[in-house]
Amino acid sequence: MGSLLTSPPTDLAALEARITACRRCPRLVAWRERVARERRAAFAHEQYWGRPVPGFGDPAARVYVLGLAPAAHGGNRTGRVFTGDRAGDFLISAMHRTGFANQPTSRHRGDGLRLHDAWIGAAVRCAPPANRPTPQERANCRPWAQAEAALLPNLRVIVCLGAMAWDAALTLRGAPVPRPKPRFGHGALFDDGAGLPLLGTYHPSQQNTFTGRLTPAMLDDVLLRARALAGLDEP
To answer: N or C: which terminal CB in the chain sees fewer CB atoms within 10 Å?
Structure first.
């Protein structure tokens, strides 16, 4: 297949329109639409989004928070990444504590949430079965995050939520992917001076937060480090 972006979008609104119309990955299209039709019992009365999910936040963001993909009954339902699920609750409450969000919850697109100096996106824009996009699906989706980062001129650091986001972020730095590839870890920092620094944290999935592998204090620490790297004042 050819490039998604033979004519790069000129603003974030144009990019969002193109992201939400994407049907490049047949397996992901089939899954996201099936979930939207069948729905979870708790949300049976809701109209699911069922499309690719664009990023959101402050167009003047200095910090890009990059996750893996929308949750089937989170972003795929609400139309906003890290919204309407427990991973989103964990992340947004941390962003509120560290001065990036005006409120500690992210429930639906019209809930009044606003981000300050931050943008949230995903490496893959459609909910994947079992939260596992294939390597080809990740490659297909990479141009969307690259275009998003290019339209955020004030970016100073990328916070990577998990190893797959770390791998994707290596292509967003505005510099060649380094070899050997820097290793992901919680609290890992890669800053070679050639592109945007990367800061790693475990993903705020229930598997990590329920077991204590990622605690609120651990995520707060990473986000506060991101503020410092971006030259932002303490909250």
So the answer is: N
